[in-house]
Design brief:
The complex is a heterodimer. Among the domains of chain A are: about 325-395 and about 595-780, Rossmann fold (3-Layer(aba) Sandwich); about 405-415 and about 425-435 and about 450-585, Dimethylsulfoxide Reductase, domain 2, CATH 3.40.228; about 825-955, Barwin-like endoglucanases (Beta Barrel). In chain A, about 30% of the residues lie in helices and about 15% in strands. Chain A has 33 helices and 37 strands. In chain A, the strands form 10 sheets. A 7-stranded mixed β-sheet of chain A has the order 14-13-27-26-25-15-16. In chain A, strands 33-35-34-37-32-36 form a 6-stranded mixed β-sheet. In chain A, helix 16 crosses helix 20 (about 530-545). Chain B is mainly α. Among the domains of chain B are: about 20-60, no CATH class; about 100-165, no CATH class. Chain B starts with 7 loop residues before the first strand and ends with a helix. Classes of the chains: A alpha/beta, B mainly alpha. The interface of A and B includes residues 329, 330 and 331 of A. Strand 14 of chain A pairs parallel with strand 1 of chain B, so a sheet runs across the interface. Chain A: It comes from Thalassobacillus cyri. Chain A: In the C-terminal section; belongs to the prokaryotic molybdopterin-containing oxidoreductase family. Chain A: This is Formate dehydrogenase major subunit.
């Protein structure tokens, strides 16, 4: 879409800009500086904010805000006349009435302070209106950030970010009180509000009013000065100041000095699959803050609580710092030399005695692409086995399999931009607001501001379901049925995309026949959904020009997980929702590198780029490159490795970066398997539950301590850079693999991960053009990447990923979910929560997060609570045929009827949901059926403290509104529009551009 | 058969070994910078001998108290004036053109000399003598300079008056 160009004149200079832009944007894009504090965050803003009043310009002789004035052909703009200067200065003076300038002793004086830089640019020399403190004390209640009303300039950027970008709708400015300020919910202390700690407000604050507590007293050279010295010093400075220019000179010098000791390194988040990138500010090993950037491709300036604040684990005392070797009934610290020699000897011994396939390798979706590539190379080249898998087996392999069946590529069809641009979003079995928080913000924003329609099908009335235009609550495990019924109904109505099917899709007839049984009546009886609601979904898809379907574990972790994923792809194909902006299938990846681990070959049947190991030509390519014979037969997956240990055929396992002992289903069974192993190597950042079973534990380095790439849910490859050195004797996983391989006679010489990526790119056509040179700064590549570096953010625009370029409709049938049997009367649902990542091994290391969410809880519906006479705080035991857990109850209408929800974050086995889950699994991919379990519930203690403590956002009281409501500011009696004031004060028309 | 265990034997000597390691690293650094460190030690020796180190020690250990006192002392109206006046004076001097100032100061110097000679003689000049001296071209030059100065200053005062 080419936008029309318009030419205007700014200060006599002709500039070209895009139609529809504001003067401010036109100036910015042409590198003409325009003051504008509240316009400093391009990601924000519903239109414009218009609170700061520093951007006045002369437009054809009239004073107007450059941020809110659209450009017109031939417009004459000046921001240099005396009148303009006076207006801008007036705006700035009003800001400084609210903000005490003591830059040199301010932690925000890092060269990027918007208020400082604007005041300096405007050559503010004296305070026109004296600074007056507001009658409010600073709010220090939140563990991660503080609000200082005395420094707050009331620009409302934080409010915009909270209301319209993050859409948590917590912050507002109360314009009606005598001294306006930002308030949380209906004016409660921050920590008692519905604040989800995402950090948007802090990241966008143009001064020091909202600051990360980790910055305070740490960023500046003189900011740690005690208050009793600091305050008189500020007084002196103010008293004698010879004009601000001198102060700015000093503060600029100090800001420059800070650069020598504060490092700012771009990294990619290590938590979920959204793939946020940001800069980490460090002083030595101390993390001062995480600062997102508008140019970050997946997230812009957005973060969630974990990415913004959850990094304490890096410096945790509990980190593994040295290799450990099991000796008798304890672990003894060892050198790398001892540990690696022992591993080499033992694994080699098992291979020689029992054959290559007596070994199993379990890779990590937390580690980099390069590390996963090396692990599969180690397994295949050195140990000659395909027994390698990664933890996407626990979550999203069924989604990939479903997509490979139908459209050819096991990944999201487009990017987060497509999700934001869609007219209709359907979310099935997922809770993105908590599990993929930043991605969810794009949906919430589009839904709130841009009329995007939203359907959520989930057992729980989760955050997105609350907002949805339609919330479907099908019976557990029946999604395939209603999805297929919607497809059939649409075809019956003649609403299918006829041309699309004719030109681009195979097996249409066969598929349509397979739908015969999926009548609305049948679907109603199986799913419990009304026929009306299914018709409504069909109508919404029919009316939408671009529909995306997003799904996650609620779909995949079932015995029919692959089939349900397939039915989603089928529905999208039938309605032509592939290959256009705003359409497609989006399996939401759970870990930072779930996508990449599989992409780079830690799978039993695939080399990197999903190329089959049993294809002679492909295998031949790797055999030539690695100079060895490679095994042809696909190996065992995670699930099969555990079974094979029980059977006695697998005797040695090497596992890295995976807490299999807690997150695999039916963990009792998994623990028994680990006990049977002859030799078990566990490589991790922490001494995990899994590590307790190991013979050798190797200390690995987390993402901040190494270089590499992660691939997010969009298929976007992004580079992380080393922020600090590995702690103690820990090492990046890729170095460990290389050291071990070389002990076993390999001749690997990777100097850095870039060389590993170069090798992978040369071997796997899907990554042919991936090169570290193309991943510098905020640059990223969305695979497939052609040799010349061309990437493909939106798939299937011209053809699907099959030899004839056509998609395949793939008939599927419903697999009824597992039934635990007589007496197990309550359905057990489970998953993540916002604050803790997964089981919480990293996030529990954060005092702030642990303070807000110290423990998991069991969600019980009000109906069930009433029936069983249970209240919030009661202690109950849940029993399944596989095990027992004990938890305190939270009664909430998020869950319905006899359905329970148990989050998986815990540090105690007795609360671990996988004590309850079974070893049944998806029939096609062996992904455990975590979501199919029924339990009995016994009351142990009728009363107790609520597991949801003060500080938990779920107790808050959000206050939705659009934007900062600047009109309320303008209605205040003490507000005079600047153009009026300039007129009154006599700097009037007639006096003109003498400055030019 | 490997049961889950949690017992980790941390090597007792680890702290000591760690220290040894760090000392060794430090020694290397010292050896690499032998000359610089030797000079530094000599300076420290001198500082100790003169008692400067003692003063610094006292100052540093009482830094917060001293800081408070110092800032309190500075935060007084008369000090504010001093600092402000310093800024103004510096500003004033900065505006003068060096060449002109030089001429003026040289003249003033000569004037002072002449005045002091006159004072030493301790002769009284009568009114007539004063009138007569007005014919002296040197006196006329000086007087007309003073008058021009007064003229300029008056203009400056008027402008200020306009502004306030």
């Amino acid at each position: 879409m080419e936008m029309k160009k318009v030419t205007i004149s700014i200060n006599g200079q002709e500039v070209e800009a895009t139609e529809g832009q504001s003067i401010f944007e036109a100036a910015r894009d042409n590198d003409i500086y325009m003051p504008g504090i509240c316009a400093s965050q391009p990601d924000l803003g519903v239109g414009v904010i218009q609170t700061c009043d520093t951007c006045f310009v002369d437009v054809n002789g009239k004073l107007q805000r450059s941020c809110s004035t659209k450009i017109e052909q031939g417009m004459q703009v000046s921001n240099k006349s005396d009148k303009v200067k006076e207006a801008q200065l007036e705006g700035m003076s009003r800001i400084l009435e609210n903000h005490e300038l003591y830059c040199t002793v301010c932690d925000n004086n890092n060269g990027d302070c918007v208020v400082h830089n604007t005041a300096e640019h405007l050559q503010v020399n004296h305070q026109k209106y004296p600074f007056t403190p507001k009658p409010y004390t600073a709010d220090n209640t939140h563990p991660f950030y503080r609000y200082e009303p005395d420094q707050c300039i009331l620009c409302g950027l934080c409010v915009e970010a909270c209301q319209d970008l993050q859409v948590s709708e917590v912050l507002s400015i109360d314009w009606e009180r005598k001294e306006p300020r930002v308030i949380w919910d209906n004016d409660v202390p921050i920590d008692q509000s519905s604040c989800v700690s995402c950090g948007h407000c802090v990241s966008v604050c143009p001064c020091n009013a909202l600051m990360e507590k980790s910055m305070l007293g740490e960023a500046g050279y003189m900011t740690k000065i005690p208050k009793n010295i600091l305050e008189p010093m500020i007084d002196v400075t103010k008293e004698v100041e010879p004009g601000y220019s001198g102060i700015f000179a000093i503060s600029n010098v100090e800001a420059a000095m800070r650069e020598s000791r504060i490092n700012k390194t771009k990294t990619v988040c290590t938590y979920c699959g959204v793939g946020c990138s940001f800069e980490v500010w460090t002083k030595g090993r101390d993390i001062l803050k995480v600062q997102p950037h508008p140019e970050a491709p997946a997230n812009g300036i957005s973060t969630c609580v974990k990415g913004k604040f959850g990094w304490d684990f890096i410096n945790s005392q509990e980190r593994l710092k040295t290799p450990l070797i099991r000796k008798g009934d304890k672990f003894v610290e060892a050198s790398w030399d001892e540990a690696l020699s022992l591993i080499a000897e033992k694994l080699q011994g098992i291979k020689q005695q029992n054959g290559s396939d007596a070994l199993g390798f379990i890779a990590s979706s937390k580690c980099t692409n390069e590390e996963n590539y090396l692990m599969q190379k180690l397994a295949r080249q050195i140990f000659h086995t395909n027994n390698i898998d990664n933890c996407s087996r626990y979550c999203q392999t069924p989604a990939s399999a479903g997509l490979m069946r139908t459209v050819g590529i096991g990944g999201d069809s487009g990017t987060i931009e497509d999700i934001a641009a869609a007219e209709l979003i359907i979310v099935v079995g997922a809770n993105p607001e908590e599990s993929h928080p930043v991605l969810a913000t794009r949906i919430k924003r589009a839904h709130k501001l841009h009329d995007q329609q939203l359907v959520v099908a989930d057992l729980r009335k989760n955050g997105l379901a609350e907002r949805a235009d339609l919330h479907l609550h099908p019976k557990p495990g029946t999604d395939l049925v209603w999805i297929s019924a919607v497809a059939k109904y649409m075809i019956d109505q003649g609403w299918e995309a006829k041309d699309f099917l004719k030109e681009r899709v195979n097996h249409v007839e066969e598929y349509m026949q397979s739908l015969d049984k999926f009548t609305l009546e049948y679907a109603e009886s199986v799913t419990g959904l009304t026929q009306e609601s299914m018709k409504k979904v069909a109508e919404m898809i029919h009316e939408s020009k671009a529909t995306c379907i997003l799904w996650a574990m609620g779909v995949t972790q079932h015995m029919g997980g692959t089939d349900t994923s397939t039915s989603i792809a089928n529905l999208l194909l039938v309605t032509g929702n592939f290959g256009k902006r705003g359409t497609g299938a989006y399996p939401l990846r759970g870990h930072n590198n779930v996508q990449g681990a599989s992409d780079f070959g830690t799978m039993p049947n695939f080399f990197p780029g999903y190329e089959a190991v049993d294809d002679d030509v492909i295998r031949g390519r790797y055999e030539k490159a690695w100079d060895t014979q490679l095994p042809k037969v696909p190996g065992l997956n995670n699930h099969e490795i555990v079974a094979a240990i029980h059977k006695g055929s697998v005797k040695g396992v090497y596992l890295f970066g995976e807490e299999m002992g807690l997150v695999d289903s039916n963990i009792n069974y998994v623990h028994e398997a680990f006990e049977k192993l002859d030799f078990f190597v566990v490589q991790d950042v922490f001494f995990s539950k899994t590590a307790q079973f190991a013979d050798v534990v190797l200390p690995a380095a987390p993402s901040l301590e190494k270089e590499g790439t992660f691939t997010n849910t969009e298929r976007r490859i992004q580079k992380l850079n080393k922020v600090m050195d590995p702690l103690g004797d820990s090492k990046p996983d890729w170095e460990i693999f290389q050291d071990l391989a070389n002990r076993l006679g390999a001749d690997w010489h990777y100097e850095n991960p870039g060389e590993i990526m170069a090798e992978a790119a040369a071997l796997a056509p899907a990554f042919a053009g991936v090169d570290y040179k193309r991943l510098e700064g905020w640059d990223s590549l969305v695979w497939p990447v052609d040799k010349d570096g061309q990437d493909h953010p939106l798939l299937y625009e011209k053809e699907f990923a099959f030899p004839d370029g056509k998609a395949k409709l793939f008939p599927v049938d419903w697999t009824p979910p597992y039934e635990a049997g007589e007496g197990y009367d309550l359905h057990l649902n489970n998953g993540r929560i916002l604050e803790h990542f997964h089981e919480g091994n990293m996030t529990y290391q954060s005092d702030g997060i642990s303070q807000k969410v110290p423990n998991p809880w069991l969600e019980v519906s009000p109906e069930l609570a009433k029936e069983r006479n249970i209240e919030t705080g009661a202690l109950v035991r849940l029993t399944s045929p596989y095990g027992k857990v004990k938890l305190r109850v939270w009664v909430t209408d998020q869950v319905k009827g006899n359905e329970l929800y148990l989050p998986m974050n815990t540090r105690k086995e007795i609360e671990a949901v996988n004590k309850l889950t079974s070893s049944y699994h998806d029939k096609d991919t062996h992904t455990p059926n975590y979501k199919e379990m029924q339990v009995k519930m016994e009351l142990l203690e009728a009363k107790g403290e609520s597991p949801i403590v003060v500080g938990n956002f779920r107790l808050g009281n959000p206050q939705p509104q659009i934007g900062v409501r600047v009109a309320k500011k303008w209605e205040r009696k003490d507000f005079t529009p600047i153009p009026e004031l300039i007129k009154e004060e006599g700097l009037i028309d007639g006096q003109s551009d003498t400055a030019n | 058969m490997a049961k889950a265990i949690q017992q980790i034997d941390t090597q007792q000597s680890t702290a000591e070994e760690q220290q040894h390691k760090e000392i060794a690293a430090l020694m290397n650094q010292i050896a690499d910078n032998k000359q610089a460190i030797a000079s530094m030690l000599e300076i420290v020796e001198q500082l100790e001998a003169t008692g400067a180190l003692d003063i610094m020690k006292g100052f540093l250990s009482a830094r917060e108290k001293i800081g408070t006192i110092a800032v309190e002392q500075i935060n007084q109206p008369n000090i504010h004036h001093t600092i402000k006046n310093t800024f103004y004076t510096l500003g004033f001097v900065g505006h003068l053109e060096p060449e002109k100032l030089n001429t003026m100061l040289a003249s003033v110097q000569q004037g002072i000399e002449s005045a002091s000679t006159h004072a030493e003689k301790s002769e009284k000049t009568n009114l007539w003598g004063l009138m007569k001296s007005l014919r002296d071209p040197h006196v006329v030059t000086a007087l007309s300079t003073v008058v021009s100065f007064l003229n300029g200053m008056g203009k400056g005062l008027e402008e200020k008056g306009d502004q306030h």
